[in-house]
Amino acid sequence: MRWRGRRTANKRDQGGLARAAMVWIHVAAAAVWIGASVCVLIVAAILPPGGAEREAFAARGLPVVARMNLGAAALVFVAGLVRFVELGAPIKYRFSATFLWVLGAKIVLFTAMALCAVLSYAAHSGTIAEKARREAEAFASVGILARAAQLAGFVTVGGGLAAALGLWLAGST
Asked: How many other CB atoms are found less than 10 A from the CB of residue 56?
């Protein structure tokens, strides 16, 4: 008899730990995604057009950043979905209208940011990157980094807005 109560308390503690872990996975993945985008913006601003360092970063660094951002986006999506189920199941998904509007805005931002991540990845995948290198290495690397910087700028701004909305959602639950 005395063990039953103890197991129940431990299960409750584990549930709270799992919920907290999911929130932190969501936040950490979003921070990696936004942070990588900020780094691309900084590199694009610092490296001179047509320079060897810029070409090297466009050829070797951007594909790594693009793959990392896709992974972070997947984690953000999965953790957000799990969190939505955790919050909604106990109340039978009867959220307030304001909560749903804010959540909808976050979903729109996430979709646009994920599209930027996919476009960035596609710009650096084998076929497109090889074609760009064949046409003109210097011009292509400048163009690819400039496009990556534009996409990263949108992800940075969108991520900041999504984070602010996320803070509001966290405070309203």
From this structure: 12
Residue type present at position 148: A
Burial of 91-127, coded b for 16+ CB within 10 Å and e otherwise, reads eeeebeeebeebbeebeebbeebbebbeebbebbeee
Among candidate residues 98, 72, 99, the one with its CA nearest the CA of residue 84: 99
DSSP 93: T
Domain range for 108 is 2-172
Minimum mean pLDDT range among 7-16, 82-91, 121-130, 143-152? 7-16
Q: How many domains does the chain have?
A: 1
Kindly write down the DSSP assignment for every residue of 94-130, as one continuous string.
Answer: ---HHHHHHHHHHHHHHHHHHHHHHHHHHHHSHHHHH
> What is the reported pLDDT for 97?
93
pLDDT band, residue 125 (cuts 50/70/90): low
Per cent of the chain over pLDDT 90 is 47
* Residue 83, CA atoms < 13 Å, CB-side half-sphere: 20
The CA dihedral of 127, 129, 135, 137, to the nearest 10 degrees, is: -160
pTM, to two decimals: 0.77
φ and ψ at 4, to 5 degrees? -60, -50
